[in-house]
Amino acid sequence: MSELIHHSVLLSESVDGLNIDPNGVYVDATFGRGGHSREILSRLGEHGRLVAFDRDKAAIDAAQPFLSDPRFSIHHCAFANMKVVINDLGLYGLIDGILMDIGVSSPQLDDASRGFSFQKDGPLDMRMDTGSGMSAAQWLNCASLEEIAKVIKQYGEEKFGTRIAHAVIEQRAIKPLETTAEFTKLIDQAVPVKDKHKHPATRTFQGVRIFINGELKQLELGLSEGVDVLKSGGRLAVISFHSLEDRMVKRFIKKQSQGKQYPSKLPVAQELLDQGKVLKPIGKAIKPSQAEINKNVRARSSVLRVAEKL
Predict the structure, then answer these.
(1) The whole model's pTM is what?
(2) Hey, what domains does the chain have and what are their CATH numbers?
(3) pLDDT (tens digit per residue) in 248-285
C-alpha cells in the first residue's frame, strides 16, 4: 500500500502552544504519522526529549524512521495509560508539555481496510488497535436494538438513531453486516431527511467509531493522567474534532482552573479560593485558518485548547 498523505492539523498553533523549551521533555500522545512529533523535534535541542504514544500498530510502524533520533521514543499503547509509562521512564512530574490530537487520523480514514470511512468500501472494522476488542461489524451484529440506538444518538448525535438501529436489526436477521458499503447503504435508506451539507452516514459512523474505541473514556483518562505527569508550568495542548470532545476538554480545563468551590455569599479569602486550582487556560480556543481549511478540508471542525499547570 502506498503511503497515504497526512496533513497535521493546527500544526504550528499547537506546537507554539506548548511554549517549547529546547531542553525540555515533551509528549506526543497521538503520534499518528508523526507530523506534530517532527515539528516538536525540530524545536528541541540535543538534550531535549520527546515521548510518543499510539495504539494503532500502523502508526508504530510509521514511527520507525524517527527511532534513529536518540531524543525520541514511542510506545504502543493508548495515551490514557501514559502515567504508567512516564513513571517507568522516571519522568513523572518532569513533563514540559503534552500534545493530544484526538480522534481518527487521515491515514486511518483513507485506508479502506480499516473500515473507518463510509466513502470507501472495506471490512466494517473501525478499531484503532486491530489487535484487541470487537470490530464494528461484530458489535452491530450482536448488540441490542436499544444499545445500538443509544450509541448512534449519544456519540453520533444522530436524531434518527432508533430508525437506523431498527434497520440494523432487520438486516442482520437476513445477512450479517460485513462491509462499510453495506452499512452506508443501510443508513442512507433508513434516514428519511437528508442534510444537504453532510452525508447521512457521517454521524452514525462517528458514533459507532467512538463507542468501539472507547474514545471519550480514553480522553477523560488521558486528560487526568496528562495533568498528573506535567511539571509546574508545563503545557497541555488538545486538538479535538467534534463537539463531544471539545466540550469535554473545555469543561475539564474550566473545572481544573476553578479551585475549591464555596457558597456564593460566603466571605472567603483569595488564598482559599485559589486552593485546588491546577490549570490556567492559555488564550482562547483556536480554530484553523481558511487557508488551512482550503488545503485540508478535514481541518474545518478542529479546535485547539491550551492550558498550563500551576
Answers:
(1) 0.91
(2) 11-106+215-309 (3.40.50.150), 130-212 (1.10.150.170)
(3) 999 999 999 997 665 665 565 566 556 679 999 999 99
